[in-house]
Each structure stands twice: as structure tokens, then as C-alpha cells.
Amino acid sequence: MPTDRAGRTAELLQQLIRNACVNDGRAGSGQEQRNAETLRAVLDGPGLDLQLYEPLPGRTSLVARMAGRRPGAPSLCLMGHTDVVPADPEGWRHDPFGGELVDGEIWGRGAVDMLNLTASMAVAVRLLADTGFRPDGDLVFLAVADEEALGSHGAGWLAEHVPDDIRVDYCVTEAGGFPMRGGDGGLRLPVITGEKGTFWCTLTVRGTPGHGSQPLRTDNALVKAAEVVRRLAEHETPADIHGAWRRFIEGIGFPEELAGPLLDPDRIGPFCRELPFLGLARQAHACTHTTMAPTMMRAGTKINVIPDRVELELDIRTLPGWDRPDVEAMLDEALGDLAGDVEVAWTSTDPSTSSPTDTPLWDALERVAGHHYPGARCIPFLTVGATDARFFRRLGTVAYGFGLFSETMTFEDYSTMFHGIDERVDVASLGLSTDLWDGLARDLLVS
To answer: Which domain holds residue 410?
Structure first.
């Protein structure tokens, strides 16, 4: 194994990518035991107590604990997930599960989301133990399964069944820390302090079966479902310039030609549709709107049978303050006169969560990041995707999303590579994140 931190993290990341722990949402997918065993081999040794949890065969999560010297002292968890979303090799320039090193970058599914941080956390914790580091409060590294399917077999299971085994004062997980230049030229480092809610559901559209050769005046559930999809896709909730979004835009110091429309609820929608920066446009729209995305459909039994049942999967992400009654009202409004023809079965009803910024963890992150980016300021950010931080927030933990990246990793690249093609991270960023966790443990956990 390489002796330098960046090299060790890069080598571990390559192996985690090649293990291909692909989570497609089915209970038997993921098989994260492969990555759990890889991480256990790296972490095993003096100074760390290791524990594996497996709620279902192969769905393994790993907890590595460095016991603190003073009972009651602040404790910290570094949490990474070990599963990745599926990847179709078509369209990729390199094998999505090859973990190739090309021109200083590691390519593959999970390179950004979030095996890069998982690998850097593991390497940093092992190196801390090797140096004899002893924190005042516990330092925990948690590598969880199933984050990409809302964590029911990973962090969610741990929080429900063994909460005391993972309970800490502070937690850092994905993601953030990508450098952004403000209007004054200074660097800003976004910290994920909250996330949108996740309301997933299955819509069942019903019709009447018939012979495919006689389509006239039939009650074709697929035709009806097509209209349902159109209405859902075209429906847009009013923009909400909430506090988290305002603090981000004001904190980054965008010029007025950007900041003005991004803070105006009447202009932000049209502005995002015309903005040439696709990553920023998508983020800005999602951060200020509750959104609905039809993502999967199942219909029909045979080519010559008029379908009488269609199932449509809908991904709804809600802004702070929304709960299930608000989402149900939105669906009724979007569907209009078709609402009575659609049955809704909820698979997730998980409202938005957030953590405050006036905390010792915030201050420590800003100090440690400042060693690498002098003068950089941390700014709060609301992530539009779900993370496992929400389980910790509901246990009373202050939980943020952060990492540390080189300026090679732009906001545009960072946004579009999540669940996209050609996912990759530069080795320099891996070294920065590894240094970050080392510095954070020494800053936050030693008085």
C-alpha cells in the first residue's frame, strides 16, 4: 500500500469501486459485505474496536470505535456509505466499475457519491490509531449499507435497533466542501446543514382490459397514465426563498445579475430554465421548489391486451415545513379530475431535517478547512437529496455534510456527476479529505 495519505486513499477507493456494491432498491441488492470486509481489513489493528451489523444477508454495516479518555466528552462520528447506484457502461468513457486511475483521477461509480469520502475517513481513522492518538471523547467511523435506498437496512436500521451503538454528539457525512469562488474572489466552502424531505410513492392507475385490436373507446390504463405523467411533470409549486437558500446565496456573494433572480420567487423559475450553467440551474430550482419526478412505470400483461393497471413510481422531494398532508394536496392539485382514478401507496414519508450552524463542529470545520484554504469561509447549504444524516439528527446529533476538494472539482462537475455518467474524483481531493478528518478529530476531540 502507498505510504502517502492520498495514495492510500486512492488505492482503497479503487477497490471499493471494483467491489460493485450496486443498490437497485431491492432487499437483496447492494451486498455491501464486500466493501465492509475491505474496510475491516484496512481498519483492523490496535486502537480500534470493530463491530459488524447485518440486518439482512449481505447488507453489512461496519462500526469502528476509538474509545475516548474522558466519559461525557464530545464525541464525533465520520459516516460514509458503501453502496452505489446502478451504472450503465454505455456512455461512460471508462468502465464504471473499473476504478481506473486516469490523469490523476479515479473513475467509477461512487467516486463522488460517496466512496471517496468513505475511503478517506477509513484511512484517516486508521492512521490516527497508528500514531497513538487518543481523543477525549469517542471517535467513530461508520460505514453503512443501503444509503441509496433510504437506509432502511443501514443507518435507519442502526438508529432504530441499536441507537446507543452509534449515538454521538456530532456527525459528518456527505457531502460539500467543493470550493466556490464568491463575487469578491474569495473561496466559499458549502456545508450541508439540512436536506429536503423524501416522499416516495407508487401511483396505481386503473382501467378496463380489452382486446388490443379494438382500441376504440376503451378505458386504457396506459393512455390514462400517460396523461397522469404529463400533468405531474408540468406541475410546479411556487418558489420558496427560505432561510437556508437565502443564507447560501448571500454567503457566496454572487454578483447581482445572478443573486437578484436567485432570490426572487417570481424570477427564479424562468431564470433557471435559461441559465447556461446546468448544475447550478438544477440545484437552484430544486433548492427552492418542492419537486415531483416520475421515474419508473410498469404496465400491461401482453401486447394484444388493453392494460387495466399501471404502476408509476414518483420521487417527491419537499422543502422545509412540508409534511404528508401538504404533499397529498399537491398531488390532488396536479392530477385534477384524474385524482379519483389514481391510488397512492406511500413508501417513504420523511420530512426535511436540519442542524444549526452555531456549533463547535461548525467552528472546527472552518478552522481545519482554513489550514488548506486560508481565508475560506464555510456557508450553509440545503442538499436536495436524502442522506443518512437525518437519522442522526433525530437522535439529537448535530449532523453536517462536508468533505474537502481541490479547485479542480467545480460545483458544476460535482452536481452533474452525482448518479450521472463519467463519475470521477482527483487524487488531490482524496488527500485533502483525508487530511480534513485527521485535523477535525484533533481539533474537536482534544481539549
So the answer is: 5-182+353-444
